[in-house]
Amino acid sequence: MARIVVDVMPKPEILDPQGKAIANELPRIGLSGFTEVRQGRRFELTVDGEATEQVLAQAREAAEKLLSNPVIEDVVNVSALPEEH
């Protein structure tokens, strides 16, 4: 079995209140130097067999049609995770 990861992020022009709240909190806990935080979503899809180019294409289609809202989000990554032994 293979696992595919899909990362979805808000489009740059979309406000990200959670990211802003995290960015504001970082200096309060002693972590400085971060100028911006954007929070996204991650999905992991498990498939029987290998993560072939065809399977990755299907995962990208699922990401674009179901896992993301194309009005406010971009699919920024669709890739196979390394196999665990």
From TrEMBL:
EC category:
ligase
The source organism is: Kocuria rhizophila (strain ATCC 9341 / DSM 348 / NBRC 103217 / DC2201)
Main location per the UniProt record: cytoplasm
EC number(s) recorded for this UniProt protein: 6.3.5.3
Describe the family membership recorded for this protein in Swiss-Prot or TrEMBL.
Belongs to the PurS family.
Q: Does the keyword Transmembrane helix apply?
A: no
- State the function annotated in the UniProt record: Part of the phosphoribosylformylglycinamidine synthase complex involved in the purines biosynthetic pathway. Catalyzes the ATP-dependent conversion of formylglycinamide ribonucleotide (FGAR) and glutamine to yield formylglycinamidine ribonucleotide (FGAM) and glutamate. The FGAM synthase complex is composed of three subunits. PurQ produces an ammonia molecule by converting glutamine to glutamate. PurL transfers the ammonia molecule to FGAR to form FGAM in an ATP-dependent manner.
Source domain of life: Bacteria
The places in or outside the cell where this protein is found are:
Cytoplasm
The UniProt entry, under Pfam families, shows:
PurS
Which InterPro entries does this chain map to?
Answer: PurS, PurS-like_sf
Tell me the GO BP annotations in alphabetical order: 'de novo' IMP biosynthetic process
Q: Which reaction does it catalyse?
A: N(2)-formyl-N(1)-(5-phospho-beta-D-ribosyl)glycinamide + L-glutamine + ATP + H2O = 2-formamido-N(1)-(5-O-phospho-beta-D-ribosyl)acetamidine + L-glutamate + ADP + phosphate + H(+)
* One GO cellular component term: cytoplasm
Q: In which pathway does it act?
A: Purine metabolism; IMP biosynthesis via de novo pathway; 5-amino-1-(5-phospho-D-ribosyl)imidazole from N(2)-formyl-N(1)-(5-phospho-D-ribosyl)glycinamide: step 1/2
Q: What is this protein called?
A: Phosphoribosylformylglycinamidine synthase subunit PurS
The molecular function terms in GO held by this entry are: ATP binding; phosphoribosylformylglycinamidine synthase activity
Q: Which residues form a coiled coil?
A: none
Q: What subunit structure does UniProt give?
A: Part of the FGAM synthase complex composed of 1 PurL, 1 PurQ and 2 PurS subunits.
Keywords assigned:
ATP-binding, Cytoplasm, Ligase, Nucleotide-binding, Purine biosynthesis
